[in-house]
Amino acid sequence: MNKDISNIEDIKLLVNTFYSTVQKDELIGTIFNEKIGDRWPEHLEKMYRFWQTILLEEHTYSGSPFPPHKQLPVEKEHFNRWMEIFTKTVDSLFTGSLADEAKLRGQNMAEMFNHKIEYFRHEAKHPLL
Predict the structure, then answer these.
(1) Matching InterPro entries, A to Z (predicted)?
(2) In this structure, which topology does domain 8-125 adopt according to CATH?
(3) Domain residue limits, the chain
(4) 59-115, pLDDT tens digit by residue?
(5) Long-range contacts of 7-11 (CB under 8 A, 24+ apart)
(6) What pLDDT shows up at residue 72?
């Protein structure tokens, strides 16, 4: 039986396992690999700090996560795939309240990012002035 997420080593395991799958995924891998390029170690470090702050309430991340995603060529199907991989990764490694919280936060983030990207695309096509 899996244990719950409880420390930074668990966060690193989650993030590393998740992104190793993402990098090879046929639908979203290319998008991530093209955007991140050779900066994967930097991206992973940022993701460790992000999830450490969100799940463990150890405030090591600062910044705004949305702006780097604003111009990505993604649609709802990409967010669905991201969430599918994220949920499977969490479920394969952890069980418990923080694991559930990670999935909930991931789902909320995917939905918010998708809505915001769609909004900005719509605004670019239909400016107010």
Answers:
(1) Hemoglobin_trunc (IPR001486)
(2) Globin-like (1.10.490)
(3) 8-125
(4) 999 888 777 777 788 999 999 999 999 999 999 999 999 999 999 999 999 999 998
(5) 7/56, 8/48, 8/52, 8/56, 8/58, 10/93, 10/94, 11/48, 11/51, 11/52, 11/55, 11/56
(6) 81
